[in-house]
Amino acid sequence: MSDTNNRILVIDDESGILDSLRILLKNSGFDVETAQGGKAGLGAVETSDFDIVLTDVRMPAINGIEILEAAMARDSTVPVILMTAQASLQTAIQAVNQGAYHYIQKPFANEDLVSVCRRASEYRLLRSENASLKKEIRRRDRSKAVKPIGASKIFTDVLRLVEQVGPTESTVLIVGESGTGKEVIARYIHELSDRSDAPFFSINCGALPESLLESELFGHVKGSFTGAVKDKAGMFTAANGGTFFLDEIAEMSPATQVKLLRVLQEREVLPVGGTEPVAVDVRVLAATNRNLDDEIKQGRFRSDLYYRLNVISVGLPPLRERQDDIPLLVDAFLERIGRERDEPVKQLSAESLDAVMVHDWPGNVRELENALEHAITLSHGTTINLDTIPERVKAPKSVPIVAAQEHMNPTLDAIERAYIMWVLKAEGGNKSRAAEVLGIDPSTLYRKLARYDAEEP
Fold first, then answer.
1. Is the same domain home to 354 and 417?
2. Is 9 exposed, middle or buried (0-12, 13-18, 19+ CB in 10 A)?
3. 404 lies in some domain
4. pLDDT above 70: percentage of residues in the chain
5. Is there a single domain that holds both residue 275 and residue 328?
6. How do residues 215-257 score in pLDDT, each as one tens digit?
C-alpha cells in the first residue's frame, strides 16, 4: 500500500465501530482519523483535507448525505464512501448518482471494505495526477497567450506586472484613458490564468441602464419586473469557473455597486426579485478611465468596493507616452486589417508615417486603429499616402510665438518652436520636407515635436 493518497476520515456515531475500523484500516496501511457523529464529521471535512471519507449514512443531527455535500464542496475530487444499512440503501444509491464514490452495505466483510478503500485511494491518486497534468498543460499554454503589442519600457513594465498577477486568482483593477487597451490587457490576464480554458465574459457598465444592467449581471426570477416572463441566469452565473471583465466600473450605480460587493465578499449572486443566492466561482477584473479616489470623495463610488477591486492595480499609459510602440502597432494593425479583408498588406509612405508618429493620439490605440482603417479604405495600391490619412492626424498644431502670460521678450526656445511650426505648416505638414528646409535631420524634428507635445498644458 502506498503511503500517499491514503489519509482517510472515518465517521460513525458508534464508538465501537470507529475503534474497529481504525484498527482495520491502520493495519491495512491507511492513515486514519475518526470523528464520532455527524457534527464532528462535518467539522472535520470542512476544516481539514482528506484523501478519502468513509461515513455512515444514518446518523442523528447530520447524516452521511450532508457529509458528502460538504466534502465535495471543499474538494470535488475526494472519494466519499457511504456505509449503509438495508433501510437506507436507496438513499445511498441516489448519493452515488450525485457524486459519491461508492457505497458498501452493512454488514460487510473486512476485506471488502479494505478493497473498496484501496480502489478509492488509487482513484484519488489518478485524479491528483490528472489535475497536475492539466495544470502543467495550462502552464505551457500560457506561453501561447496573445501578448499585447509594445516594446517601450513604460509598456513592458506594465506587461511584467500583468504576467506576474495573471496566473493568480487576484482581483485586478485596470486604469487608463479611453482607448488604451484595457480589455486587451484583461483578456491577456485571463489567458495567463488557470481559467484560460473557461469562459471570458465582458460588459461595459455604462452601456446599459441600471435596471437592465442588474438583470444582465445577476439574473432575475420570473415576474420580478414587467417583461420578466421566465427565470434568467445572469452573466456572473454564465461565467462560472471563468473570468468576468467589468469595463467602465465607475458608471455603475450605487445600488448595483452594493450587489457587486456581495459577489466579491460572499462569492454568490442574488438574482433580481430572488430570495435564494446562487454560488459562483468567478475571477473579477475591472477597468475605469476615471480617478476613483475623486469618485469616492464625490460620493459616487463606494470605498469598500474600491478596496475589494483594487487588490492589484494596473495603470495603462496613453499612446503619447509610448511613442516608440507606434510603428509596431501600425504594422500589426495593417497586417490584421489586410488579413481580415483578404487583401495585400499595405504600408505607410514615409510622409504618412511622419504624420502618424507626431500626432498626439488623444483617442490612444483605438484612434490609431480607426485612422489606419480609414486610410486603408481610401487608399489605392499597396502604399498609404498622406492624402488618405485623416485630417485630424496630419494637421500640425499652431503655436503662438509668445503666449499672453509670457514676458514681453520671447525666449530663444519659443522663437525656435514657433519657426519650426511655421515651416511645418508652410510645407503642408510634410515633416521630411520641413526638416530639409530647417536643415536638420528628420529624427531631430520628431524629437522636438514630441517635446512640444509633452510641454502642452
1. no
2. buried
3. no
4. 89
5. no
6. 888 887 776 666 666 777 889 988 989 999 999 999 999 989 9
The kind and range of the H/E element at 282 are: none
Task: Looking at the structure, tell me whether residues 213 and 241 fall in a common domain.
Answer: yes
In this prediction, residue 165 carries a pLDDT of 95
Query: Does 216 fall in a domain?
Result: yes
Closest to 57 in 3D by CA, of 126, 103, 120, 111: 103
Grid-cell match 460620493, residue found: 299
pLDDT digits (tens, 9 = 90+) for 221-230: 776 666 666 7
Positive/negative CA dihedral, 128, 132, 133, 138: positive
CA-to-CA distance for 437 and 443, rounded, in angstroms?
14
Phi-psi region of 185 (alpha: psi -120 to 50; beta: other; left: phi over 0): alpha
Give the model's confidence band at 266: pLDDT under 50 very low, under 70 low, under 90 confident, else very high: confident
| The 3-state secondary structure of 376-415, one letter per residue | HHHCCCCEECHHHCCHHHHCCCCCCCCCCCCCCCCCHHHH
> If you search the block for the grid coordinates 498644458, which residue do you land on?
457
Q: What angle do CA 90, 94, 95 make, to 5 degrees?
A: 115
Collapsed DSSP state (helix, strand, coil) of residue 311: coil
How many structural domains does the chain have?
4
Are 312 and 175 in the same domain? yes
